[in-house]
Amino acid sequence: MRRNLRKWNRHRLMMGTICALTLFTGMKAANVLAAGENTEDETYVEDSGLIEISQQEADPLAVLKRSVIELKANMDDTVVLEDINIDNSKIETFGFDRNKNGLQNVKVKVSLTNNDDTTSLGYSFEETVPVKMVKSTAPVIRLKNDSVVVNNGDVWNAASYLAYINDDSGILPVLKIEGDINMNVDGDYTVTYTALDTEGNSSEAVLHIAVRTHEEVIRAREEAERKAREEEAKRKAEEARRRQQLNASVSFTAPSGSEMRGTGSNPYRGGWSNCTWGAWQLVYNNQGVKLPQFHNAYEWLKYAQAYGYSTGSTPRVGSVAVYKRHVAYVAAISDDGTQVYIKEGGHNGKYNERWVSATEGIPTQFLRGYIYIGN
Predict the structure, then answer these.
(1) 134 pairs with which residues across the strands?
(2) Ramachandran angles phi, psi of 209, nearest 5°
(3) Which one, of 314, 313, 318, lies nearest residue 328 by Cα?
(4) Long-range contact list for 250-259, CB < 8 A, 24+ apart?
(5) With 50 as the cut, is the pLDDT of residue 165 above it?
(6) Where are the alpha helices (H) located in 144-196, listed in sequence order?
(7) What is the pLDDT of residues 245-256, one digit of tens each?
């Protein structure tokens, strides 16, 4: 220790003859400290005149003091680090802002303390040094949960699962959300949230999403599908029945009943082999109305209108259906009004009864209209 003190006194005397203070102008080396590297035993020295300090440093003044003293010792042989208690040495700064990101010129005044005790070495210096405050930590991003289960069919709102996002700079980071989710298809999906600050630092958080259909929804859907199948089966059965009625015909070779008798001075000839004879006779037998002579079947609609009978396209029970070249008596109408049950002559030369379309006519015979008998 005596050797060190003698060395220090010798250096101090020599420096006193030259200059009481040594300036930092022309310095070739400076301490560059990254976040987490502020220790007494480990210092990263870079060949630069710049002192870098992390904004996240707990005691930036201590880092600045150590950097300045070590830099001074590196440039000045009269300053011996082994003789200096850096922790007990003092530093004053002017123009230093630890919260200001970037480069700033800081004026420092350092008073050195002896390594063996707290006594001052009687040596101090002042200088303006370039200091760069850097932010080396990434922004913070947190989610409410790492995984969630959502209902099939819900609306996806990615922001609702974000709990916290922050950056020490005070500037809100840019948030990117990546990942494809189909809320209408059950499955497992992944969404990545990325927070990016102005300096390019980023942090990520991953959310695992399970899209599931609720059990009640499944049961309701299955019930709806079952009912739909039953309705479809009923519809097809009814359609088949109507098709069968539409296509089926019942012929009589020697039927009985009033429809088969020819009475009332029927103006037509041919009996049941003639559709006009049959239609006229059926009107008379069922309603007691003697129709005029309407000539050929395709002319019945025109002559009926001329005689003052009402006509139309909607069937009525007791009306006469007029087709391209055929006429028939309407005996019944289906509940939904789509079919009529006709009685007719001239069907393959015989009397016949069948269900046919109320609007489209009969096979190979389109519908011209209906003649309404009476009221």
Answers:
(1) 54
(2) -115, 130
(3) 318
(4) 250/352, 250/353, 250/354, 251/347, 251/348, 251/350, 251/351, 251/352, 252/350, 252/351, 252/352, 253/350, 255/351, 258/285, 258/286, 259/285, 259/286, 259/343, 259/351
(5) yes
(6) none
(7) 655 544 443 343
